[in-house]
Amino acid sequence: SGNYYNQGEIRKKELEQSCCVLGIPASDVTVIDHRDLPDNPAVEWDTQLLATLVLKHIEAKNISLVVTFDAGGVSGHANHVSVHTAVRYSVCTLLWVPPWGCRVLVLESVSLFRKYISFLDVLISCLLPRDALFILTEEETEQAKRAMRCHRSQLLWFRHLYLLFSRYLVVNSLRLL
C-alpha cells in the first residue's frame, strides 16, 4: 500500500488520481495491503506469497498482458526486484502456462547514463535487441508526467529530475519473459 513513511492512505489516493489521469478507472486499481509485503526499499518480499497473489489477480481479472520490472527493478528497489522474481517464479518454476494466453513483458533496466538522457535514448534503444519498444508521443509523455505529479508524497528532489530527464517517460524497451 506504499506505507513506508506511514503514508499508505495518502499514497493509495495518489495512485487512484494518477490512474485517473491515465484513463484507468478506480475499479481497475487493486492495492495489496499485506503485512508480509511491507513497502520498504531494503526488504525482499517472499517469492511464493507474492507469486500466489499475482496469479490470483491475473486469473480474477482475466489479464492477458503483464508488464513487470526486470531483475534490476529499474531503480534497484528491493520490492521492485521481488515483483520480478515472483513473476519469473510463476512463469518458470510453476511451469505457468495460462490457458488465456497471458504474456509477460519485462521492462529493461538501463545504465544511469541512459536512464537520464531522455529522448536521446530513442536512438540507442532502436539499435539494441529487444522484443518490444514503446516510444511515447509528446502528448503521452506529458500525460505520464501529469500522472507522476499526482504522487506528491513521493516527489522528492531527485524525482523532479526524473520528470525532466528520464528516458522511461519517452522510451521503454522490453523483453518477453
UniProtKB/TrEMBL annotation:
GO molecular function list: N-acetylglucosaminylphosphatidylinositol deacetylase activity
GO cellular component, one term: endoplasmic reticulum
Tree of life domain: Eukaryota
One Pfam assignment: PIG-L
EC number: 3.5.1.89
Name of this protein: N-acetylglucosaminylphosphatidylinositol deacetylase
Sequence similarity: Belongs to the PIGL family.
